UniProtKB/TrEMBL annotation:
<keyword id="KW-1133">Transmembrane helix</keyword>
<keyword id="KW-0472">Membrane</keyword>
<protein>
    <submittedName>
        <fullName>Energy transducer TonB</fullName>
    </submittedName>
</protein>
<feature type="transmembrane region" description="Helical">
    <location>
        <begin position="39"/>
        <end position="56"/>
    </location>
</feature>
<feature type="domain" description="TonB C-terminal">
    <location>
        <begin position="189"/>
        <end position="279"/>
    </location>
</feature>
<dbReference type="InterPro" id="IPR037682">
    <property type="entry name" value="TonB_C"/>
</dbReference>
<dbReference type="Pfam" id="PF03544">
    <property type="entry name" value="TonB_C"/>
</dbReference>
<dbReference type="InterPro" id="IPR051045">
    <property type="entry name" value="TonB-dependent_transducer"/>
</dbReference>
<keyword id="KW-0812">Transmembrane</keyword>
Length: 279
């Protein structure tokens, strides 16, 4: 090949210069661009056909669904069954069997009170007295208690045994005389007024003064909710009439300020010291 013609000669002819062009490779490479274009055109045509076909199929499906939705379906009412009214069975109450009356023994809830307020009738029964009897609010004659069960209605009518109200907490019941208080009873005006009252009204007994008797006399008395005093007693006696004078001075003091427990006025057994000194 002439070197002057190389720039104008295609690359394929340069490669196959002085070679057998009729073998086939030369023809394949020469027509490569044409074959590639045809292949791409074929692939593009098939792809476009499938895309258009899918769109047409989808549109046809939507039309079919629209036609189905527009269809009106009328349902006939099912025949009603006749309602069957059931009459409830009447169950007769079981009649309680009559039982014999059982002997009862009164048993009150024990209360703690001072010895001078104890009443013999409040003493609880002995264990032996309760062996064959039921506990109740009253004592009655009857058959021995052998463990027989008594229907609830009979218990209610005859009030056999203690009720639930008998087992109240101690703080729910206010004792007649408080054992402990938040504030003790005191003379109106406090200790200063009590001292002035003693100075104006206390008389030193002549017998005690002549005998040189002096000291403290403790007096006990009850102050109720209204401040009234009662049951005045001397807890010790030094002699010479000092105990009698101490009781007299308490009686003369009239009303006191009541004791308090949890903010409420209560009846309380107050103790007060009265001092006798010879000057």
């Amino acid at each position: 090949m002439d070197t002057n013609n190389i720039p104008k000669t295609p690359l394929i002819d340069i490669i196959f210069n002085d070679r057998n062009k009729a073998y086939g490779a030369y023809e394949l490479r020469t027509n490569y661009s044409s074959r590639l274009g045809k292949s791409l055109a074929f692939v593009f045509s098939v792809t476009a056909f499938l895309f258009v076909y899918s769109l047409m199929a989808k549109d046809s499906k939507n039309n079919d669904l629209g036609n189905k939705i527009d269809t009106v379906v009328t349902l006939a009412d099912a025949p009603k069954k006749e309602e069957v009214i059931k009459i409830p069975e009447v169950i007769e109450p079981v009649k309680e069997q009559a039982t014999s009356t059982v002997a009862t023994e009164r048993f009150d809830i024990p209360k703690i009170v001072p010895d001078d307020l104890f009443v013999e009738t409040d003493r609880p029964p002995e264990i032996a007295d309760l062996e064959h009897k039921k506990i109740a609010k009253f004592t009655s004659e009857g058959n021995d208690d052998i463990g027989q069960m008594v229907p609830p209605s009979i218990l209610k009518e005859e009030s056999i045994g203690p009720s639930i109200n008998d087992f109240k907490k101690p703080e729910d019941e206010e004792p007649p005389i408080a054992i402990t208080v938040s504030i003790e009873a005191q003379y109106p005006g406090g200790q200063s007024e009590w001292r002035r009252f003693l100075e104006r009204n206390l008389d030193y007994p002549e017998g005690a003064e002549e005998s040189g008797i002096q000291g403290d006399v403790w007096v006990q008395f009850i102050v109720d909710k209204e401040g009234n005093i009662s049951e005045i007693t001397a807890l010790n006696d030094l002699g010479g009439g000092l105990a009698e004078e101490a009781i007299r001075i308490i009686k003369r003091s009239k009303k006191w300020k009541p004791a308090e427990y949890n903010g409420k006025k209560v009846t309380y057994r107050q103790k007060q010291k009265i001092t006798f000194r010879i000057h």
